[in-house]
Amino acid sequence: MNLRLIGISAGVLIILSLPLAGAIAGPDFAGQDDGKGGGLLSSLGLADPAGGSRTPAPGAPPARQAGPRQPGPSEQPRTDSRCGPELSSPQGVEAQTCILAGEGRTWGRSYYRNTSGRALDAVLTVMGPAGRTVQIRCAVGAGDEPGLCETPREDSAGAPDAYSAVAEFAVPDDEGRLLLRSGSNSPAPADG
Asked: What distance in Å separates the CA atoms of residue 61 and residue 91, rounded to the nearest whole number?
């Protein structure tokens, strides 16, 4: 009886360890390259060096060679930016405002950090050619975490240097007292 119990226990342990062995070996049980050195068949030496299995599954289509993979993330569209200087106020607000352009669209973005200890309102305005203006209001929470306020992306109506942006940070309950104004204008180059 003791041998029967040991045999049953051993069988149960083997059955329970199969999913663990599959998880350790990787999801590729056909021996194809999974980026970790192969699947279960290749780790046991049952796959051929080309990455295919020596013993194809019944009814499986013939193995095909995968094309070369290119490492890294896919190429992102180019975004041009023109940013003004990083500014800070004595009340604890820091900001930098930019004009961004890409894929035939232009928009404004202001990066900020609010260490004033109170919630603020931010108004970001983008001014473009022919009197075009886009404005958005953003709630700026109290805290030290960096954030951003961004206008919607609009179809470009001219060159990026024809646009400018201004972000204004104010206290909402103090009759809109302005704490900081940040613009996308680039600082003037220093002489010399």
From this structure: 69
**Residue 79: its pLDDT value, please?**
82
Contact 101, 75 (CB under 8 A): no
Residue pointed to by tokens 């200890």: 117
pLDDT digits (tens, 9 = 90+) for 127-165: 999 889 999 999 999 888 899 999 999 999 988 889 999
Rounded to whole angstroms, the Cα distance separating 18 from 12 reads: 10
- What are the domain boundaries of the chain? 2-43, 80-183
Exposure pattern of 38-69 as b/e (b: 16+ CB <10 Å)?
bbbbbbeeebeeebbbeeeeeeeeeeeeeeee
**Cβ 89 vs Cβ 181: under 8 Å:** no
- If one compares 65 and 186, the residue with the highest pLDDT of the two is 186
Which pLDDT band, with edges at 50, 70 and 90, does 70 fall under? Answer: low
Dig out the tokens for 69 from the structure.
Answer: 């993979």
Domain 80-183 carries which CATH code?
2.60.40.2550
End-to-end CA distance of the chain: give it in Å, rounded: 97
